[in-house]
């Protein structure tokens, strides 16, 4: 079983953010807390392989609330579980790291975004470089070595040289995992409202390629379009999104998938406090989604499993697309995999898969 818990509170709102999040407010948080405990209590769990506390900023939640939520899941953790918590460097204190380690949390995902102060300020991030390095050291000191950081590229005024500095610092830190995303200007974000222009597509493509080359040449595996890791240190939780598995999404702002059916918990925080959890099932196309998600990864699509699960014939049905993108899509050992050049135009390829679905 894979479980995602959404904690939708942040101390401040970043300029690029269009996630489901609210600025921390003690009285609203208290009411949310009652509701999320009710939601968890109404569910039944089997053995939990991966548990993910995401947000928002889970590390901004008061310790006593986090402990009460965590305790609901601890009895169900599988023997070799992965339990991740997303943290922001400025809210992740030594005390919190100790607490998380004592609870059994064994993976930290740290929202770094950049190692350059001027860029962090422009993004509306509140942490300093000292915060980042302190958090990483304190996680290691407390036995949490499975650390991932998030970085961004394609940022306003960011040059290839700026990006190079970020990559170099990341490599020096010798961390097992990196998630790296290009900035998307979302209309409802502060950047969107300010009319900030997206990065030049050619520069963005050069940045993507620079990241890919530098990381793969220094021993990292690009196992997903935006994810790199050392020696099998994959995000096991994220793999469940890409390998066509079900996962439980808990809390307002969470999404989930049960028996192949996707749902969102999209109601506002106020509505969640009033109504409790409401799952809205969304129209989906599971066979296509399985292709879409698996092609993001280095493992690709297991053709036989897909054929059996959906009672279809992948190679026959998508003969046209496979032929048209023969250089970008390879079939190896029974799996359809995107080459590096395929990953660069994955969205275009997926549109064609969808047309033939
Ligand atoms: S980017 Fe993360 S920390 Fe920043 S406002 Fe959004 S959810 Fe909160």
From TrEMBL:
Any Pfam family matching the protein: Radical_SAM
InterPro entries in the cross-refs: Aldolase_TIM, Coproporphyrinogen-III_oxidase, Elp3/MiaA/NifB-like_rSAM, HemN_C, HemW-like, rSAM, rSAM_sf
Keywords in alphabetical order: 4Fe-4S, Chaperone, Cytoplasm, Heme, Iron, Iron-sulfur, Metal-binding, S-adenosyl-L-methionine
GO BP: any one term: porphyrin-containing compound biosynthetic process
Major subcellular location class: cytoplasm
Localization of this protein: Cytoplasm
One function term, GO molecular function aspect: metal ion binding
Record domain Radical SAM core: where: 1-221
Any single GO CC term annotated in Swiss-Prot or TrEMBL for this entry: cytoplasm
Presence of the UniProt keyword Secreted in the record: no
Homology family: Belongs to the anaerobic coproporphyrinogen-III oxidase family. HemW subfamily.
Main function: Probably acts as a heme chaperone, transferring heme to an unknown acceptor. Binds one molecule of heme per monomer, possibly covalently. Binds 1 [4Fe-4S] cluster. The cluster is coordinated with 3 cysteines and an exchangeable S-adenosyl-L-methionine.
Database matches in NCBIfam families: hemN_rel (TIGR00539)
Identification of the protein by name: Heme chaperone HemW
